[in-house]
Structure formats: C-alpha cells, structure tokens
Amino acid sequence: MPNWKELLSLDEGGMLQALRQFPEQVERALGLACRVPNGVQGFKNVVVLGMGGSAIAGDLLASFSTLPVVTVRDYELPPWLSGDTFLIAISYSGETEETLVAFREGLRRTRRALALTTGGALAALCEEEEIPWIPVPPGLQPRAALAFLLFPLLGCFSRFGYVRGNPSSVVTILRRLRDACFPDENENVAQSVAKILCGKVPVIYGARTTAPVAYRWKTQINENAKQPAYWMELPELCHNEIVGYELAGKVFPQGIVVFLRTSFDHPRVAKRVEILKEVLSSRGLKFLEVWGEGEDALSQALWLLYFGDWVSFYLALLNGVDPTPVRPIQELKRMLKEP
Ligand code: PA5
Predict the structure, then answer these.
(1) How far, in Å, from the CA of 302 to the mean position of ligand 1?
(2) 70 with 191, same domain?
(3) Ligand 1 atom closest to residue 141's alpha carbon, by position in its atom list
(4) What separation in angstroms does the CA of 25 have from each of 35, 142, 323?
(5) Lowest-pLDDT range, 38-42, 140-144, 259-263?
(6) Which of 339, 325, 333 is nearest to 11 (CA)?
(7) Is pLDDT above 90 for 339?
(8) Burial class of residue 225 (count of CB atoms within 10 Å of its CB; 0-12, 13-18, 19+)
(9) Would the CA dihedral through 127, 133, 134, 138 be positive or negative?
(10) Are residues 157 and 192 in the same domain?
C-alpha cells in the first residue's frame, strides 16, 4: 500500500482542504441563489458563457434544467440568442478572454443577464452595464470553486421551477462521501480507484446526466494528476469508438475504461454497457464501473462528480505531483497577451 500520509506532503497548494470543503461550499453557494433577481424570469432559453473549470457549471445546469441550456465555450454566440435568452457569464478570474468578448456581444442582444465571478474585468463590465453579478470567494482554483459557480444557478432555477431534483438534498450525500474519501489510517475507495488508474490512460464514459461528469473526471485527471485522460458518451460511442477497440490492445495498451453508472440510466443504455463490457474483455481491454449514490439523478451525478474529484486528487499524489498548479494554462494565457 502506498504511504498515503507521506504522499499528502505533495499537496503544497492545499487541494485537500478545498476538496474537503465542497459540501459546505454547496450549502453556502445555495444561499447566494437569492442574488439572482426574479426580474430575469420569462426567458425561454439559457446561454452560459465560460471556459474550462468555469464552463462545466453550464453543462451540469443543462443536464438538470427543464429549459434549453447551451454552454458556449467560444468568442462567438449562437445566431438565435435574443431578448428571450437568459445570458449567464461564468468566469472564476473574471479575466477570461473568450467569455468577456462573447458577454459584451451578448449584452447587445439581451438584458436578461447575470455573471458569476470573483471580480476582474467581468465584474467591472457588469457594473458598467448595470447587470447583476454574484461574487464568488477568491483564492481557489476555478475547478475547486465549482460549488460557487453551479449551485447559485441550480438554487435560482429551482426557485423558478426549472430544475429536476432538489439541489439542497445533495449536501447530505456529499458529506457522507467526503467522510468516506478523506484520508485516514485505512486505504479508502477513492484511493483504491486511483491505484487502479495509476500508470494508465483513463477513458471515462457517461450518459446523459453523467456525460458532463465524465468530462469533469477527464479534466480533473488532466489538471490535478497532470496526465492524459479522455471521455466519451453513451449511446453515441456505440456508433464509432467501439470500432477503435479492434486495435486498441495493440496501440493503446495502457487504456482503461471507467463507466459512470446510475440507477437512472436508460435501460437500453444499461444494456449497451453490458455488451460493451463483453466487447472490451474480448479485446483484452481493462474497465471498471463506478455507481453513483443518492435518491435522484441529480444526487447520483454529483456523487459521481465529487468521487471523481477525490480519485483525481489521489492519482496526482501517486503520480508524484502537487494537484493544484496548472502552469501550462497560465503560460499559454501569458503568451496570448504578448504582442
Ligand atoms: O481550471 C482552470 O484553471 C481553467 O480551466 C480555467 O477555469 C479556464 O482557463 C477559465 O478561467 P476562468 O475560470 O478564470 O474563467
């Protein structure tokens, strides 16, 4: 068994503390939902602008909203965005170029708008344009601030009657999961999964509400554990990726599939997973399944998301890296500012 206690000294950036606080952050963030003015109501669709660790909140909102929600990770807006659209800009730093450009343009088409940010140019733009914005606590990595970027929205959409599931009910299951994954004397289940993934290239599969969760696993493994990871969604992958298994044993021997499962998976998707497991085995490819816990689809998806955050944290330690820094992202942003 790895010496987990010793490995924790790699966590110089304090990711463990951020992870530990997630359930309490969710509670605090739900309290911020009241800052969304009721006056925005009457919208017919939602566009969420954001990139990276901020944008994932839009994907998760889309999974559970009863209104159409589209996440735009781009400088340019969909042509249909109009006065009927609720435009939400999410940027932890408030300085993300693509988000600022698109938001500025979007405010010419709709005044139903909101931003979530720690400040920066995005907050300044909101002040100038008299658009409400929700202040997010500073000092975190954007990916570690997910509670503050998502739950004010889930809370207000719930108040408007636009959410499937009860966002406040997830806190209890997240606390239980935190207790199960926090490091102590015995190896926990997140550490065991990280051990299975260590030295491999995880390919995470989700379906419908767990598709953005699969994407979050991939990006958390990239940013925390500093290694490649990929994702794909069912049932679509049965129409293309499955063919790639034919040579995967030869060209991708370190690949390992992780199926994210919930009891709310469509029965035909569940059947596809069973068939895929057989196909993977017959090709000599490795896989594992992780089942979400909780009473509704929202709880199970968030359980899986939080569990993936823990797995990526422990995988970082097994890889011998500090989970927090994301130097290549910062370096690229710096280079883009050069003339
Ligand atoms: O995880 C990260 O640091 C990135 O994915 C950022 O979230 C992304 O670059 C966008 O920055 P921000 O979240 O500050 O808008």
Answers:
(1) 20
(2) no
(3) 3
(4) 16, 13, 20
(5) 38-42
(6) 325
(7) no
(8) buried
(9) negative
(10) no
- 138, part of any domain: yes
Residue 12 lies in a domain: no
Report CA(92)–ligand 1 centroid distance (Å).
7
Q: How far is CA 1 from CA 187, 198, 309, 323, in A?
A: 8, 13, 21, 20
The answer, yes or no, to whether residue 237 has pLDDT greater than 90, is yes
Closest residue CA from atom 1 of ligand 1: 53
Structural domain range at position 193: 187-318
Q: Is residue 333 annotated as part of the catalytic site, yes or no?
A: yes
Catalytic option among 5, 266, 271, 333: 333
Question: Can you give the CATH number for the domain in which 208 is found?
Answer: 3.40.50.10490
Name which of 266, 215, 189 is nearest 73 in CA terms.
215
Nearest to 70 by CA among 32, 106, 29, 31: 106
Q: Confidence band (pLDDT; 50, 70, 90) for 21?
A: very high
Our count of domains for the chain comes to: 2
Within-domain flag for 337: no
Residue 308 located in a structural domain: yes
